[in-house]
What we know:
Among the domains are: 20-149, Endopeptidase. Chain P, domain 1 (Glutathione S-transferase Yfyf (Class Pi), Chain A, domain 2, Up-down Bundle); 325-503 and 566-641, Orthogonal Bundle (Neurolysin, domain 3), CATH 1.10.1370. The protein is 54% helix and 7% strand. It contains 23 helices and 7 strands. The chain has helices spanning 32-52, 58-83, 87-108, 111-122, 131-146, 153-177, 215-225, 230-249, 255-260, 268-296, 308-319, 324-328, 332-347, 426-444, 459-471, 476-483, 504-520, 528-539, 557-560, 567-581, 592-600, 606-614, 620-641, and strands spanning 181-184, 202-205, 349-354, 367-373, 378-387, 397-402, 411-418. Helix 2 (58-83) packs antiparallel against helix 3, helix 10 packs antiparallel against helix 17 and helix 17 runs antiparallel to helix 18. It is globular.
Amino acid sequence: MFHRSMKVISQNPCFRQHVIKRFGLFGRSNFLQAQWDSAHISCEGIRKEIETSGIDESLIAKLDKISNEICIVADACNFITSFHSCNDVANAAEEVYMQSISYVETLNTDKTLYLKIKALKESSMWQLLDQDTKHATNMFIDEFEKSGTHLNGEKRNIFVETNNEIFKAGSNFVEAAHQPTSVSITKCPTPLLNLIRGSSPLITLSEADLNSRYDDVREASWKLYHRFDKSREGKLCALLNQRQRLSSLSGFENHCEREIKGSTAKSPVVVQDFLNELNHQLKDSVDFEIDLFRKSKRTRDPVGIWDISYYAVESRCKFMQKYAIFQSNLNLTVVMEAINKLSLDMFDVELVCEPIKTDEVWHADVLKYSVRTQCGQTLGTIYCDFYRRPGKDKQICLHTIQCGTLTQIPIVVLVCNFNKDGCIQTSNVNLLFHEYGHALHAVLGRTRYQHVSGTRCPTDFAEIPSILLDSMINQSSIMTELFNRDELKDKSLPSISISDCYNATETQVQLYYAMLDQLLHSSDVKDTCKIASIAQKKYLNQFEIPSSTAWHQRFAHLYFYGGRYYSYLWAQAIVNIIIERHDLKNTVQYSPEIKALFEQGGSKDCSYQIESLLGESLSIDKMVASLVKPLSSFNTLIESAGA
Length: 643
């Protein structure tokens, strides 16, 4: 309840200038342990104050202060553990992080705190509270109950034990999902014999080996890498069934119901209705795209599930080939200028590069930006770790270090993995805009309670700002900012973003995984392959998938997003409606309503926020139509181009 973060493990052995006695990041100069000790003492003081005082409105502010004290240390330590290059610093951060997590567990199951907040809601003063405080109160109660705090005796002990088992089972499943597959050369499929390396008696395949340009190699690699594995099946079933057990203890019918409560979607029934209708309406676009892939396929064999990613990328490259000159001139400086223009035009804020103080960052390449209003007010800080280096995780992601409130400036870190020469691929431009959307959501956050600030909201709501900014790349003024430089004045700009090309089949695969995620988290599971087979026949019936394979056993997001993987499709649908309703397709313009959406974070009911922004209630029909229309439009574009 008091701290939400996802631990990302990475090793960075290249930057050793920092010394423990001089260590400081983000403008904080104290030892990590000293920071935590101070926060712990403060939290315990507030905790005792709550236990001994009466019930009034200040209770929520006190609980939020505890949450903030913990998060300020724990979020920084979580980031340092993953990305700092000095092992001593990273190890010290991890030790402090684990201390904070252990303390959080004691708070999340503190029955006195739970009963106090329940008493507030049941008291006569409840009706006198403002809506923000009521919403924060309800969130605290829900999260206490998700932690089993309302349970008594043996049930509570079982809950704590089950929670620990879920963490172990999830870690085991994720590790197994990423393990390569090895096979003896004597049993190796013929198309893979050219992958023999050195004198090893084994051929080892990882996910990186699945995109060969040769159809037979790609198919054989996919089948071997995704073959059924009894050990992985056991780990996945253990995770799913422990989650179901925990949900039952918490009073929920299943894990999906537990995870989706309080989200924009509200219930698993709504999510599954949305996915079923999308599945029905996607058919024509998917069939059209598969037919194009079939014509491109070198062997003219039926298009397999192993072909989708390869031919989608190949088709995009061919379609965008006439714009190759723009790609060759695209660099990080230009992209950041486009991001700054979007920030100015749409939110009336700008990015200002700031000088960095001694020991303020974890690597010499890190840049620091202030987000400022036109009046010069600093709203927050974004540290940008743009460039790849040995040992650094390859993902592009955002880490919140400090949440923004009415009295606290937010701090976030944007982590990328670009070449240091400054050149940037078009696909990475979309990723950078997406993560910048998360960053801006966090930085613009101005809520009374930090516990609900910025991205601290349901997943299907948190993805809306990021997908919105990603989608704005298609807007003509942003395209001009990215591509229309002096040496390109006589060239026609790209009419469509690369992310919108040949997207139907990949949307279908995403839909399949979203529905499988729902089905696997809806009841006790003894055989995940049986459920996956049923889902494939309904949601991927365009492909013949070998019964000897179990590709869902490699889908680590079943742990990270369990019950919430639908969120990306759901959020994209809402974004498409926002763009249409606010006329953002043709012009980027300042919108106080959209800015308010960013500022409010999770402080208000997310469905209410969306309906206020759109001026109408969401409906499944409108959401599905908003997703299908761009796919159909692209098909029409391809047909008219004679592709």
